[in-house]
């Protein structure tokens, strides 16, 4: 009998401790189950933090996981906010808590929220590919890279990966992780766009400023070559490099150039010999 | 010329013009430098020519985009530190570009000079002359030397003296000019008659004498008018 009482007591204690364990639940799931509600504060232009007022509608404690790629969409033609760093918020039963989420503008084509904005926010998950990429970057501590904003637009606005400007080793590492996660080849060129002015409501200017490129080219016989940027009609716009009497071989040319003043559109990266032989031609988008 | 060959000729000319128009950077050989320019720095120092290129932007929108240029280092050993210069058409001399504008780099088995160009113009790579001695050309007071040019294909030196000299001295930073050095000079004789010699080599000058040269003396006899040069160590 003593043994039975002991076992019963053990079961009660064990089940009690199990019941006492916090529930870990994603923010989306908690909303769906109506376990939480939220109130978002209007974000102003360029802000990378987003304030949420969260209310736990249950009496239970929970660990609320804010997912990477979650979007908060304002009512009206304004920039949504995309969460780029997943965080866990511990909440007690019926508790109200503020949280600042880290993220970026989720639509390059619309302006920021005016200070007078009083509308509500809805929330939804962005593409699965974006969520996966952001999670991978966070796991590798690369989610604070300068390329984050451009990366978000690659998913929300279908910008090509070449619009993510890279000019250092950390940037290259960032791009390698992105390309591997989305299963695409690394672009051999990338464009830096001008930052928006203080007065602009738009985060993406579309005004090209710099270009980085790496192109590989076979030269079959001794030649003097130019590495050029041509317009859509083949007219030379810029000369980046000139190499005199280059012996035959395979060469890799790195370009890091100011391209300010060029309109958006199609151009050609080309290598031409000075006797007008075209040794390389690649269409690029600026 | 019949119609067909005229059309072919037009086509060839058009093609050549197009090819030429597309060349943003062209090499300029020493002959052209000697003929139209010189190898003197803005400070008046004579330099040894190594390479020159002409950069023409044409209709390119090249603003703020420098051109990275690589030219092969010739298969010769150059002492000293070659430097990059740009031609100043106003002063008719070469102005140094920065203090460290010229780099040397290997690409495969070939060594290259590497430098950056940010505006069109004529750019040259020059070295200091190895000669530590100089000569003085004495211009007799009976004549007025108006122009003197000394060109040595062997030394890769082209020296221009444009100023008028009467009864003065001209310093030539070469102690023993090679016999093949070419001389072009214009002077007025005592009657005011213009006299000229064009691309005459030292060897062709009557008074060139090996023993004089060995003693550091050389004499130029321009059609009975004499210019006397005496070799000496230059004053720093």
Structural description of this entry:
The complex is a heterodimer of chains A (286) and B (236). Chain A is an alpha+beta fold. In chain A, the strands form four sheets. Chain A has a six-stranded antiparallel β-sheet with strand order 2-3-8-6-5-9. A four-stranded antiparallel β-sheet of chain A has the order 13-12-15-16, with no helix packed on it. The longest helix of chain A is centred in the first third of the chain and has 19 residues. The radius of gyration of chain A is 26 Å and the shape is elongated. Chain B has 236 residues and is mainly β. Helix content of chain B is 14%, strand content 44%. A five-stranded antiparallel β-sheet of chain B has the order 1-2-8-4-5, with no helix packed on it. Chain B is globular.
Mean pLDDT of chain A: 90
Mean pLDDT of chain B: 78
Content-based structural category of chain A: alpha+beta
Oligomer: heterodimer
The Cα radius of gyration of chain B reads 21 Å
Shape of chain A: elongated
Number of helices of chain A: 5
Low-confidence stretches of chain A: none
List low-pLDDT spans of chain B.
13-21, 213-217, 222-227, 229-236
Question: How do you describe this structure in short?
Answer:
The complex is a heterodimer of chains A (286) and B (236). Chain A is of the alpha+beta class and 286 residues long.
Task: Map the helices and strands.
The complex is a heterodimer of chains A (286) and B (236).
Chain A: H1 2-20, E1 23-26, H2 27-32, E2 36-40, E3 49-56, E4 62-66, E5 70-74, E6 81-83, E7 87-91, E8 96-105, E9 121-125, H3 128-139, H4 148-156, H5 169-182, E10 189-193, E11 208-219, E12 223-230, E13 236-246, E14 249-258, E15 266-273, E16 278-285
Parallel strand pairs in A: 1-4
Antiparallel strand pairs in A: 2-3, 3-8, 4-7, 5-6, 5-9, 6-8, 10-11, 11-14, 12-13, 12-15, 15-16
Helix pairs in contact in A: 3-5
Chain B: H1 3-22, E1 25-27, H2 30-36, E2 47-55, E3 67-72, E4 83-88, E5 93-96, E6 103-107, E7 110-117, E8 121-128, E9 134-138, E10 144-152, E11 157-161, E12 165-166, E13 169-172, E14 182-188, E15 194-201, H3 210-214, E16 217-222, E17 225-232
């Amino acid at each position: 009998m003593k043994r039975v009482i002991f076992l019963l007591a053990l079961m009660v204690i064990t089940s009690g401790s199990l019941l006492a364990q916090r529930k870990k639940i994603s923010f989306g799931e908690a909303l769906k189950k109506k376990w939480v509600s939220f109130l978002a504060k209007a974000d102003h232009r360029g802000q990378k933090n987003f304030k949420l007022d969260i209310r736990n509608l249950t009496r239970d404690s929970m660990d609320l996981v804010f997912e990477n790629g979650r979007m908060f969409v304002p009512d009206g033609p304004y920039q949504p906010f995309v969460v780029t760093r997943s965080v866990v918020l511990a909440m007690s039963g019926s508790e109200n808590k503020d949280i600042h989420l880290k993220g970026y503008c989720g639509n390059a084509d619309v302006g920021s929220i005016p200070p007078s904005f009083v509308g509500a926010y809805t929330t939804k998950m962005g593409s699965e590919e974006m969520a996966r990429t952001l999670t991978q970057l966070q796991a590798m501590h690369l989610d604070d890279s300068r390329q984050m904003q451009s990366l978000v637009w690659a998913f929300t606005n279908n910008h090509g990966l070449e619009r993510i400007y890279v000019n250092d080793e950390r940037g290259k590492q960032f791009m390698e992780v992105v390309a591997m996660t989305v299963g695409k080849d690394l672009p051999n060129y990338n464009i830096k766009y001008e930052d928006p002015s203080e007065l602009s409501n738009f985060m993406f200017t579309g005004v090209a400023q710099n270009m980085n490129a790496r192109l590989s080219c076979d030269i079959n016989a001794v030649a003097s070559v130019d590495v050029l940027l041509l317009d859509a009609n083949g007219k030379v716009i810029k000369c980046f490099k000139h190499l005199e009497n280059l012996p035959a071989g395979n060469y890799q040319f790195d370009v890091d150039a100011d391209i300010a003043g060029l309109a958006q559109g199609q151009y050609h990266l080309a290598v031409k010999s000075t006797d007008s032989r075209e040794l390389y031609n690649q269409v690029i988008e600026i | 010329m019949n119609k067909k060959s005229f059309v072919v000729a037009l086509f060839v000319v058009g093609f050549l013009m197009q090819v030429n128009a597309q060349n943003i950077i062209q090499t300029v050989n020493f002959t052209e430098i000697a003929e139209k320019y010189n190898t003197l720095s803005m400070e008046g120092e004579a330099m040894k020519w190594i390479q020159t290129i002409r950069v023409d932007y044409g209709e390119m929108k090249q603003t703020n985009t420098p051109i990275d240029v690589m030219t092969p280092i010739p298969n010769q050993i150059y002492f000293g530190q070659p430097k990059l210069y740009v031609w100043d058409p106003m002063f008719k001399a070469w102005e140094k570009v920065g203090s460290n504008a010229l780099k040397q780099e290997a690409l495969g088995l070939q060594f290259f000079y590497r430098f950056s160009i940010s505006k069109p113009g004529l750019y040259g790579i020059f070295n200091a002359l190895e000669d530590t001695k100089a000569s003085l050309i004495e211009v007799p007071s009976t004549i007025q030397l108006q122009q003197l040019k000394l060109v040595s294909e062997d030394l890769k030196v082209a020296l221009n003296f444009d100023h008028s000299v009467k009864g003065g001295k001209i310093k030539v930073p070469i102690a023993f000019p090679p016999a093949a050095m070419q001389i072009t000079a214009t002077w007025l004789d005592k009657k005011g008659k213009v006299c000229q010699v064009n691309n005459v080599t030292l060897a062709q000058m009557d008074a060139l004498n090996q023993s004089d040269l060995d003693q550091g003396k050389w004499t130029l006899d321009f059609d009975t008018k004499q210019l006397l040069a005496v070799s000496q160590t230059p004053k720093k």
